[in-house]
Amino acid sequence: MQNRGTEALLHHPGFTRSLPFALFILLLAVELSWSTLQPIIPGLESVDKRWLYAIKSGLAALALIWLWPRYGELKKLPSSLSSWLAAVATGIIIFVLWINLTQSWALIGEMGKGFDPRQQDGQVDWLLVGIRLAGSALVVPIIEELFWRSFIMRWIDNPVFLSLEPQQVSNKGLLISSALFAVEHTQWFAGLIAGLAYGWLYRRTGNLWLSIVAHAITNGILGIWVLNTGSWQFW
């Protein structure tokens, strides 16, 4: 009976779209609680918490690989060149907005120090950079689009969300899922616009790969810009 229940859970489309994202968020919570955990866990003060990013993106990536056969909608690539161009343009526009929407009213709290890959001598640790870029531009777009757009945006309209075509998502589903996506980020207003843009792209085209590509382009360009400007707070 227990094995049957476990098998059913692994086949549940909501679970398969939530697990990689949940693993990432769980370890993000550990990262945010690092200073609180240090007095409790012996030796933790000597651990460089920047390597947590490798663990959380790695676990999320492993979960994606394991569950990949369950993501039927990712088996079909869009064939329209105009759709690909729309995804690229969307990703670039969101990047531009992201680095400019930093006013206090557009933030939840304050922007922190971010992910600084430099060592004590000021030299950049390129392994840390590679891990961060790979996680943010390759892993995060897939886990977030599977969770926020493929699952949550459609589930708001219909709990049996796979029966709802992306083009049938209501404005309510788009707005609520984008608002929830926004509060996941310190830059809530930029996050809201990003959620609306990626959700609109998914709803318009019916193909999740396009919102993933747009998201990946935003994060990829942002990473390159951060490295060139030293604006670590955006990481």
Secondary-structure blueprint of this entry?
Layout: H1 2-11, H2 13-32, H3 34-37, H4 52-67, H5 81-100, H6 126-155, H7 171-182, H8 188-205, H9 208-229
Helix pairs in contact: 2-4, 2-6, 4-6, 5-8, 5-9, 6-7, 6-8, 6-9, 7-8, 8-9
Q: Which of globular, elongated, flat, extended, rod-shaped describes the shape?
A: globular
What is Rg? 18 Å
Number of helices: 9
What order do the helices and strands follow?
HHHHHHHHH
Estimate percent helicity.
55-70%
Short overview:
The protein has 235 residues and is mostly helical.
Describe it for me?
The protein has 235 residues and is an all-alpha fold. It has one domain. The protein is built from nine helices and no strands. The chain has helices at 2-11, 13-32, 34-37, 52-67, 81-100, 126-155, 171-182, 188-205, 208-229. Helix 2 (13-32) packs antiparallel against helix 4 (52-67) and helix 5 runs antiparallel to helix 8 (188-205). The N and C termini lie far apart (45 Å).
Keywords:
65% helix, mainly alpha, 235 residues, globular, 9 helices
